[in-house]
Amino acid sequence: MKRVLLDTSVYGRLVEDGEFSLTLYKYIPQDIVVYGNEIIRKELRAISKEARISGESKRKLLLRLYDSFVRKEKHVLKITKFVEILANEYFNEYKEAKGALSYKAMINDLKIIASASIHNLDIVISGDIKSMFSHSALKAYSKVNKKYQFRTPYFIEYSVFRNDIRGIIYDDWKQYQ
Description:
The protein is of the alpha/beta class and 177 residues long. The protein has one domain (7-176): Rossmann fold. The protein is built from nine helices and seven strands, in the order βααβαββαβααβαβαα. Helix 1 (8-16) crosses helix 4 (58-69) and helix 5 (81-96) crosses helix 7. It is globular, with a radius of gyration of 16 Å. It starts with a strand and ends in a 7-residue tail after the last helix.
């Protein structure tokens, strides 16, 4: 069983692709356990009440999807002081690696990865390749996690995950056990 964190960007894509959402839902909890955190839920709540998908509130759809995937309270990772410290160290290394985005633009992504690393999650899935999965960010996670002896999660871009869910769950993930 794989412990997975879906980034905020993934929920928006899942809501737009209801068929894939149902496919993914079938794998929970027998093959994967989905984790979340207070940043992700807060970002989902920040979506305008006016935004609609097929006439229904996009925000309500996103929150309902999040709550259906993150099924237990213990699967909501807290943003602790240590998560914040680790995220700040990621940012310092990100800048050393010539990362271009500002602290304000990056900090939530860095906290999300810090919480996944501290809790030893297997995989982080995101559609955010320009910030969260940028070369500079990946280099920063690896360097800081090595310093603290945390295992860096495996990162999968949403489109890869979406196109090969069966292969990821049954074949590729075996190498990360």
